[in-house]
Write a structure and sequence with these properties.
Helices cover 36% and strands 20% of the residues. By secondary structure, the protein is α/β, with parallel strands linked by helices.
């Protein structure tokens, strides 16, 4: 811990014994790992260490009752409030949140490390699992109302520190009660003199503004606290896109697109027209690059029998841009899969047959009965795929 010192407190008219906060200067571009290891050991021992992030400076504290009590005293914060868990890598989320929805997965993949905090809500079964895996004390220290806030900062000093600490680390902003968060080491020392053990001085923070706190729920993305990232940016980063591919984009893929919209809307509990607003985009294309053609009559009749209207559909051609931005690409045949891989090799890992183990035959030029059987086959496959999704 820091060295003991005497400090004159004018309001008391006397000297009081305080701790002298140690300062370690670091170059963010080439951080001294040995010095950060000293800070990590201090956190593991129960100490409080201020460190830089891309937003503001935070106070690293292990998620242990005694350490948290001291942190709450420094922050003048009621002890029943939970602090944000900080992690070095996105894959660490799985340790604390067993079931992560599609949009949260997308947001983490696109935006972390980065300046936003994501609040996860756990169901009862997952909370029970966490109690078994992490222990009652850790759960009590990290979770509140079956939820946990997690942040993955984009700063090399923060990343090294979080990797080296053996305990789960929480880190509120480094500031005194009622004061603005510190964005430089000097501000930490000015606001919290002698109250923390060590400051890792990595220079001023990049954004000089707090992280955005966001939650993704049934009604879409909700900003709980404004910050560096705007709602529009986070909405864009978290949008999940589904693409269906056939040959001409007049029969199979338009039916699959429309059926997927219907059943996905039912699963998330919204109107079909509201899907994009809450973060899901569904579209289709054809490998023949036929643009502007309506859905075939057989496809329209087959869908209408299921209460689905595709009369306004017009065909569009498959492109590299469509494949590049799609999170899921479902094809009707192996030929379509090869076309996807040829046009955009990076999309091959996201591409699969809609039916997994068999191709969906092309009904073009066939009887209405053939179209109806094809639509039944597509709907069955669509329902199975949606059943696999965590939304």
């Amino acid at each position: 811990m820091g060295q003991v010192a005497l400090r004159f407190v004018p309001s008391y008219g006397m000297f009081v014994v305080t701790m002298e906060t140690k300062v370690i200067k670091l170059d963010e571009r080439r951080p001294d790992v040995a010095k950060i290891q000293e800070a990590a050991a201090l956190v593991d021992a129960g100490g409080l260490v201020a460190f830089p992030t891309e937003t503001v400076y935070g106070i690293a504290c292990r998620a242990e009752r005694g350490s948290l009590a001291r942190l709450s005293e420094v922050k003048a914060r009621v002890s029943d409030k939970r602090y944000t868990l900080h992690i070095e890598r996105t894959d660490e989320v799985a340790k604390y949140v067993p079931t992560v929805g599609l949009r949260a997965q997308k947001l983490m993949r696109e935006g972390w490390p980065g300046p936003f905090t994501l609040v996860f809500e756990l169901n009862k079964a997952d909370m029970q699992r966490q109690r078994s895996d992490l222990g009652e004390e850790v759960v009590a220290n990290l979770y509140a109302d079956d939820s946990v806030g997690i942040r993955c900062p984009d700063n090399p000093i923060a990343a090294h520190l979080l990797r080296m600490v053996r305990s789960p680390v929480v880190a509120p902003s480094a500031n005194a009660a009622g004061r603005a968060p510190a964005v430089a080491a000097e501000q930490v020392l000015a606001q919290l003199p002698g109250q923390i053990d060590l400051v890792l001085d990595g220079g001023p923070s990049k954004y000089k503004k707090g992280s955005t706190v966001v939650k993704i729920g049934p009604k879409g993305l909700e900003v709980l606290r404004p910050g560096v990232r705007s709602r529009e940016e986070l909405q864009r980063l978290s949008q999940v896109k589904f693409l269906f591919v056939c040959t001409g984009n007049t029969c199979r893929s338009p039916m699959a697109e429309a059926m997927f919209r219907k059943h996905l809307a039912e699963k998330v509990g919204c109107e079909v027209d509201a899907l994009e607003q809450i973060g899901y985009k569904v579209y289709s294309a054809g490998t023949m690059d036929m643009a502007g053609f309506p859905a075939s009559e057989g496809a329209r009749i087959a869908c209408a029998a299921k209460g689905i209207d595709i009369s306004v559909h017009t065909s569009s051609g498959l492109s590299w841009e469509l494949l590049e931005e799609s999170d899921f690409v479902f094809v009707m045949s192996h030929v379509h899969g090869r076309a996807v891989a040829s046009l955009c090799p990076e999309a091959e890992v996201r591409c699969t047959l809609l039916t997994e183990d068999e191709e969906i035959p092309d009904p073009i030029g066939q009887s209405q009965e053939f179209f109806n059987r094809t639509s039944d086959m597509i709907e069955e496959a669509v329902k199975k795929r949606i059943g696999e999704l965590v939304v």
